[in-house]
Amino acid sequence: MASQHGAPVIRQAAARDRAVHAGAWWIWALGLAAAASLSTNWLVLITILACATAAVAWRAPSGPAWNVFRAAVVLATAVFVLRTGLGVMFGLALPGRTLLQLPELPLPSWAGGMRIGGTLTAEQLVAAMCDGLRLATVIVCLGAANCVASPLRLLRSVPSALHEVGVALVVALGLVPALGTDIARVRRVQRLRGRRTDGPLGWVALTVPVMEGALQRSLDLAASMDTRGYGRRTDSTEAVRRTSNALVLAAFLAMLVGTFFFLGMGAPRWAPWLLLSGVAAGVTGLMLGGRTRQRTRYRPDPWRTPEWLLSVTGVGVAVAAWHTAATSLGLQLPASALTWPALPPLVLLTVLAAAGAIALTPALPQEDLP
Q1: Model pLDDT for residues 20-41, shown as the tens digit of each residue
Q2: Is 121 helix (H, G, I), strand (E, B) or coil?
Q3: CA atoms of 113 and 92, how far apart (whole Å)
């Protein structure tokens, strides 16, 4: 009797605790990153940073995944400091409250008002810090996506038409951690044997064992792919393959150009339509290309309501930021950089919705880590 009542409970728990589709997390994070790239309003950027950090705090698996986010935070901090320093030394001279008088190197008139050194004002320092915070926020958003959803799990869900590209990216992404593990193992062995592991000679001694391990892994991977029937193709005409490749290439170019103008200031009205047409062409090309390849997926990640909520709210943040940037100056620093900036209500609501979507995602079970 206990087993009869216990089975539904186990199934319900398994349905609640599952890994959210990695694609949904990346769409969500890219939407936040796109919104951050359009803003120099530090209040908006801090709000987006808090939302991305909440995703890591609530849904990141325990263990090595946190190291990814820590590395992203360290990189973001370094970029923030570097961008602030460059803005102070090489930025445009902004009038305002003088903080410091630096030695100045005059530049020709074609430099567009830039100078090296000179008078440092509080407005110039705040503007440089906000620009650095924008870059740091983009890095943290991508680091959060990498933390809560492994790129390897995302590449496992790529369409069949991009299966070979996905496998190549999986191998490339797995190369660096594997090399790091091999280097640590070889250095530990050499240390036990009393050999030097520091300095140029120590690194030269690591080369042969590490390269030998990488070659052996490549041979094992090739044999494994061969036994599993990798590269199988279905019967399809040459016209279908050419049409699929042409559509994917055209979609890539359209999305590249559309995204460039969409994220730029004063984007033309046709930029969103070019971006949407690129997405439509890409979907059509991938559907046609998928018919030419046979692929077996083991335990594919489902796409359900939580995934839709993450995707819609992430795209909503990007659209709200683009609309605000196109219709007002709410995403930019005020004319006086030392005044308290306004927080655009539309952007605030969409970021809060994106944060709320995190709470509606299922918890990640410990036995199903990415």
Answers
A1: 888 899 999 999 999 999 898 9
A2: strand
A3: 6
DSSP 134: H
Task: For residue 302, report the phi and psi dihedrals to the nearest 5 degrees.
Answer: -75, 160
Q: If you search the block for the tokens 């990798």, which residue do you land on?
A: 230
DSSP sequence for 237-254: -HHHHHHHHHHHHHHHHH
The span from the CA of 143 to the CA of 65, in Å, is: 10
Task: Let me know: does 68 contact 143? Beta carbons within 8 Å.
Answer: yes
The torsion angles phi and psi of 27, rounded to 5 degrees, stand at -65, -45
Q: Are 134 and 265 in contact (CB under 8 A)?
A: no
- Using only C-alpha atoms, what is the Rg of the chain? 25
Which of left, alpha, beta for 219 (phi over 0: left; psi -120 to 50: alpha)?
A: alpha
Average pLDDT, the chain: 77
Beta bridge partners of 105: 116
At 367, the pLDDT band (50, 70, 90 cuts) reads very low
CA distances from 173 to 43, 140, 165 (A): 35, 19, 12
Chain-centroid distance, C-alpha 250:
23
pLDDT at 67: 77
Check: CB of residue 28 under 8 Å from CB of residue 329.
no
Task: Choose among 168, 165, 82: nearest CA to 128.
Answer: 82
The residue assigned the tokens 């930021």 is 321
pTM recorded for the entire structure: 0.71
pLDDT per residue over 158-179, tens digit each? 776 676 676 676 666 666 666 7
Asked if residue 213 lies in contact with residue 184, where contact means CB atoms within 8 angstroms, the answer is: no
Q: Give the 3-state secondary structure of residue 46.
A: helix
Residue 338: DSSP 8-state: T
Confirm if 173 and 150 have CB atoms less than 8 A apart: no
Q: What's the rounded Cα separation, in Å, for the pair 15 and 7?
A: 12
Tokens 């992430």 sit at which residue?
A: 314
Extract the runs of DSSP E, i.e. beta strands, from 105-164: 119-121
> What values do phi and psi take at 105, rounded to 5?
-110, 110
For residues 351 and 277, what is the distance between their CA atoms, to the nearest angstrom?
27
Helices (H), 115-198: 122-148, 151-155, 163-192
Tokens of 113: 């008002």
